[in-house]
Design brief:
This protein has 427 residues and is mostly helical. The chain has helices at residues 2-30, 35-51, 55-63, 66-81, 88-98, 103-110, 116-138, 161-181, 186-205, 209-230, 235-253, 255-274, 280-297, 308-319, 323-333, 344-368, 375-394, 401-413, 421-426.
Length: 427
């Protein structure tokens, strides 16, 4: 009788995990689109996880993971450095945003190995849906009852151009690798190619200068991985044609791309030669010029969680006599609790010194050295590592809700999971 009860309990626990995995496919779809269903679905998944039993064993499994430890260490640095913070409101906000790191623990415990590709497909379909809506927006076509939460002319659901171009770059890298290396039915390969073309084109019709660079970075990263693994050296000229061809076509057909590219070079030249920091690109140059000087003065421990903006502006007012520069730099750092220097590298180095910067980079290092038997998913991992490191140099990852959650989710998807092949055979 007791054995029957225990067997019945295990059976229901297995069903809870199975249900959670189906929900995670939907979660992955909505991840680049809407925040509300994502939160609701995660809440249900969390309940299913708690009902699934063996909580202590599963948590120990998660906490032993080197990548989980790296993310948690990043969270701990923010907590410890709050002790000396003078801007507790900003510091606490940043801490609240980083609580989503804890989601990773649930993901690697719940995700079943046989669902990894289904969940990844759900994520890619979410991006594909965003692309369709973006193209419709280009022609001023709106879908009834669809809530547009994005910023700009052709960005339907992301808060910034940067976030949208980042997820597009990750998706086109994954697709390109699949097109070249996977043996697929002709109709499926055609869909992959169509999706790749649409993602590439979409990057060039939005106003993200960073996105234009990420397009090349994504393709070159995948090319390197294919050449290393499969010795397909023809991919180098193919990738150069894709990159140069894409830029030439965009430059001659997209007024947005043409204007943004020319503006970038002109503003960069003015910032370097004339110290003109009151243009969109000049501001970022100014952030790095003055930020580097402050980092040198606080090299080990930084200035504290959330205190870097005040320190930065005090330094600027003391060392820059151009009022336009001061106003522009001040305007671009101020966004309430979202205040930043538009760079993960700068924000972390200024707040936490070299210690915090190394802790931040350790996340990517642990991901990069992570042992993973599935080569395709390892490539997915490398693609988003390279893309997000590139983004971190001139923008933010952990302050943008969707981008941060995507980073955490994709990281979890490419780690070792509690429900591995050995455990699945016992189900």
């Amino acid at each position: 009788m007791i054995k029957k009860i225990l067997d019945l309990k295990v059976k229901y626990q297995e069903k809870y995990i199975l249900a959670a995995n189906y929900l995670l496919i939907v979660y992955a779809f909505f991840l680049p689109i809407y925040a509300k269903p994502v939160k609701t679905i995660f809440g249900i998944v969390l309940v299913l996880f708690l009902l699934s039993g063996n909580i202590k064993e599963k948590l120990l499994f998660a906490f032993k993971d080197k990548v989980v430890q790296a993310f948690l260490l990043f969270l701990i640095v923010h907590i410890v450095w709050i002790l000396g913070s003078e801007n507790t409101e900003v510091a606490i906000f940043k801490l609240k945003e980083l609580k989503y790191i804890l989601y990773m623990i649930v993901f690697i415990i719940v995700i079943r190995k046989d669902f990894i590709y289904k969940i990844l497909t759900g994520f890619l379909l979410g991006i594909f849906f965003s692309e369709i809506v973006s193209y419709l927006m280009l022609f001023d076509i709106r879908i009834p009852y669809l809530i547009y939460t994005g910023y700009g002319v052709n960005v339907p659901f992301m808060a910034t151009f940067t976030q949208y171009s980042t997820v597009l770059s990750i998706s086109l890298g994954i697709l390109l690798y699949g097109i070249v290396t996977k043996k697929q039915k002709l109709w499926l390969k055609a869909i992959y190619i169509l999706f790749f073309i649409s993602a590439s084109s979409n990057i060039f019709i939005i106003q993200s200068k960073l996105g234009y660079g990420l397009y090349a970075i994504s393709i070159l990263t995948v090319t390197a991985m294919i050449m290393i693994k499969y010795k397909k050296y023809y991919m180098l000229p193919v990738s150069l044609v894709l990159i140069l061809g894409g830029y030439i076509i965009a430059y001659n057909t997209s007024s947005v791309f043409n204007k943004r590219l020319n503006g970038f070079f002109n503003q960069t030249e003015a910032a370097i030669e004339k110290k003109n920091y009151h243009t969109p690109t000049g501001v970022r140059v100014g952030f790095n010029v003055y930020g580097y000087e402050i980092i040198k003065e606080n090299i080990v421990f930084g200035v504290g969680t959330g205190d870097h903006i005040d320190e930065f502006m005090n330094y600027v007012k003391e060392h820059d006599k151009d009022r336009k520069n001061i106003r522009s730099l001040h305007k671009n750092t101020r966004n309430g609790v979202y205040a930043s220097l538009h760079s993960e590298f700068l924000d972390n180095a200024l707040q936490f010194g070299i210690i915090g910067l190394l802790v931040f980079l350790n996340i990517f290092y642990q991901l990069l050295r992570y042992p993973y038997e599935d080569h395709y998913m390892k490539v997915v991992q490398i693609i988003f590592i390279v893309i997000l490191l590139s983004v971190s140099s001139v923008s933010l990852v952990f302050l943008y809700a969707k981008l941060k959650n995507i980073f955490i989710f994709l990281s979890a998807l490419t780690l070792m999971h509690y429900h591995n092949e050995k455990r699945l055979k016992l189900l």
